[in-house]
Structure formats: structure tokens, C-alpha cells
Amino acid sequence: MIPVKGYSGKRVGVLGLGRTGLATAAALQAGGAVPVCWDDNPASRALAEVEGFEVADISRPREAEALDALITSPGIPHLYPEAHKAIQAAWDIGVPVDNDIGLFFQSFADEEWSGFERDPKVVCITGSNGKSTTSALLHHILRHAHRPSQLGGNIGTAVLGLDPAIDGEVAVVELSSYQTDLARTLQPDVAVFLNLSPDHLDRHGGIGGYFAAKMRLFILGGPERAIIGVDEPEGRYLSNVLREGAGDNVIEISTSRQLKGMGWSVFARKGFLVEWRKGRQVASVDMRGMEGLPGAHNQQNACAAYAACRHLGLAPKVIEAAMASYGGLRHRCQQVAEVSGVKFINNSKATNADSAGKALLAFENIRWIAGGQAKEGGIAALAPMFERVKKAYLIGEAAAGFSAQLGTVPHEVSGTLDAAVAAARRDAEPGDVILLAPACASFDQFDSFEHRGEVFEALIK
User: What's the pTM value of the predicted model, to 2 decimals?
Assistant: First the structure.
């Protein structure tokens, strides 16, 4: 745990008592603060009381006035579509609102660092798709290279639940737009922007607000090195804004074009990852046999992780060997099984059309299980990829809409995941891929995308 600094003896509200909220309350308490906890869910409040924390409705003016700060969990709206009433109460009386990411950067550095040979580093990774895989891959490479490393944030451990840093350690932190949007302090040593596609637009008031939330990590954070995916205009814009002098403070990455300028770049072409610097090729990595990183989208993730490792001083051959041993991340183009020549791929994390499209491009002879709680636009943007689909099996609330968008593509409305798996298994032939890539949120039938993926795995097994 990382004790929170700067609030000793003060009453600090903690809004939202899930994994992040409880870790925040414990870290505040460890730093000498008095956490005052609240969640709209009575069961969550009861759990906090069992943990020994004070619980009070901090949306009430009397309770809010007694606070010195309010720390909110990322899932709770703080602006759009409407701020939670506890946040509005804090605004009304001038109580500063922050989140656990802000507290982390405020508290991570320690006096003990003065005795370290190498200062610890923080690498933060954001983007619409691929954050978790890039974070897990980077963490894997660092551990393979015997570099101390921790993984947290939007993946695994909440940031304040990480251990205090040791000499030369790297904290790999995945950050969603919900987390970067509010944090009062952002100080990464390395910041990675992978890509941008429409998502969470109601939470950010549109695509501009969504991009602005992610940009805060770079503009407010001022990292010593920025790694920027430039396959979308937003990435090219951000790279241009950040680039200084010869441009070595920015490493551009791409899977769509060769970046052979005078700056520093890493790009993927025909299964090879290429590092280019000062007008010449520095290194090349053959990714064609890396089963844990299928498809162009994983090549982008690999480019980002490779670039971060190069900044941290790892040699190309060390990085390549570690990548080859990476087994992939659960629910993200994860091969669950291969039976009678048929592969079963769990990509339940594909909660929007863009991420589902990347999975479709990674395989051939696809029997596609799609559907759930639809996002705006459905799967219309994926029409150029429908020729890769032998048949689709549609589930959840989106089934009827997806059926209309598929048009003449062979498909059936299965309704439930178990029915879709049974139908796909019935139809499958050797060489086929049964791919769960829903292009939807999971909340119509499941608790989370993880739950949906776990059910898929259980059905296969």
C-alpha cells in the first residue's frame, strides 16, 4: 500500500466503495487521514463498515462541510451526463475533488529514493483499445528482463494498493479516460497514447471531451518521453503538440505506415516490428510466430511496449525474447481451445465496434458471436470486414439491430451466449475460428465483460 501524503489529521470523503474506493480509504488511513466513506449501494457501505471505516452520506451539506477533500472513484460521473450529488455538494462549499490517481502521483515519491541507485519510474498507458494488453505485455517484458515492476491502475491492483517502490522499479499503470479526466496531479515518466475511437461519449460530452480527457496525461503530466500512436488524426495532432527540437522526446508508433523520418519511431510492417531513429533502422523484431500477439492491433500494442522498454534501457534482443514468451491476456484474443481443427477465441473485451473489428482482421474463416448492449452506430462501420465472416451468431439486446446491419451475411439470432456457442460448434468445420467479439457492452446479460468471457470459456470447456 502507498500511504497518502498531505492529509494527516484531515477528514477526506471517499465516494464509491468498490476495489478502488476501499484501497483509497485504506491508503488515506495509512497516511493519517480520517476517511469518510459513502456509496449509493447499501451492501458496499456495509462492507466498508466491516472494514472499520466511518460511513456517512457525504452528499448532505452538513457532512460535506466537515470534509477537507473528496476523492471519487472513476466510475462515478463528475461532470457528464450529470455530476453525482456528493460531488455537487463539494462544489457548493469549495471542497476540492480529486481521484486516486491524483493521490498516487502526490504520494508515490519517497524520501528513501535519495538512497537508490536508480529512481523508480512510472509508465502510464492510455487509449481506446489495447491498454490492458500493452500494460500486461510491458510488465511481462520487464519481469523477463529481471527489472523490478508492478502493474496496476485500470488493470489488476488499484494504484494506491501497489507497494512502495524499490530501487530501479517500474510501475506500469493503465489509465482510462475516467481516471485521467479528474486527477489533479499527473506526473508520469513515460506516457503512452495508443489510439482513439468513439467510446464513453455520454461521460465526456462527445468525442472532443473524450480526447481532451486523455490528453491531460500528456499536457498536464509533462512526461519526459511520450509514445504516441499516429494512425489516427488525434495521435498525429498530439505528437505535433508535444514534439520539441529534434523530436526525441516523442516516439511515434504505427501499424499502417512506415515512419522513416529523422525522429524516433517504431512501426510494424508485414509481421516485423522495426525501430527507426535518426534516419536509419536500429533494430527489427520478427513477430510472425508470436501466438500471444495475433493481429495488427496487437502489433500496435507490441510497438508501444517495445518503445517504452527502449526508453527504459532494455536491449532489442532482450525485448524480442520476452515478447516471444508472452502468452496473451485473458478475454483479449485469447485462444481458449482448439478442438478438431476449430479454434475458440475469447475476445470478450471487444466492447465496441472498433475493437471487434481488430479481432475480425486477426483471423479468417470466422464464426462470429456478437451482440449485447449496443454502442452508438452498432457494427455498421465493420461492413468491409464482413467478408471474413462465414456466419454470425447474435445475442442480447443488439441482436435485431445487428441482424439488419449484417444484411446478406449468413447469420442467426441465437439470443443467449450458450445458444450461440452451441450453434457455432454445430456448424464449424476444421480451419474455422469461433470468435467471441461482441462489439457491445455486457450489462444486458452479464455483470462485466470478464463475466461474459468466463461463461464463454466454461461453455467451451
Answer: 0.85
User: How many residues does this entry show for the chain?
Assistant: 461
Which CATH number is correct for 334-460, 3.40.30.10, 2.40.30.10, 1.20.1250.20, 3.90.190.20? 3.90.190.20
Tens digits of residue pLDDT in 262-273:
899 999 998 999
- The residues pairing with 371 across neighbouring beta strands, listed in sequence order, are 395
Q: What spatial distance separates the first Cα and last Cα of the chain, rounded to whole Å?
A: 37
Query: 11-98: which CATH architecture?
Result: 3-Layer(aba) Sandwich (3.40)
Q: How many CB atoms are closer than 10 A to CB 102? A: 20
List residues bridging with 393 in a β-sheet: 369, 412
Q: Which residues contact 272 (CB under 8 A, 6 or more apart)?
A: 284, 285, 286, 287, 288
Domain 104-324 fold is UDP-N-acetylmuramoyl-L-alanine:D-glutamate ligase (3.40.1190)
Q: Tell me the pLDDT tens digit for each residue of 416-450.
A: 999 999 999 999 999 999 999 999 999 999 999 99
- Of 353, 344, 362, give the one whose Cα is nearest residue 294: 362
Each residue's pLDDT tens digit, 139-188: 999 999 999 999 999 998 999 999 999 999 999 999 999 999 999 999 99
- 10 Å CB burial of residue 415 (0-12, 13-18, 19+) is middle
How is the chain split into domains, by residue range?
11-98, 104-324, 334-460
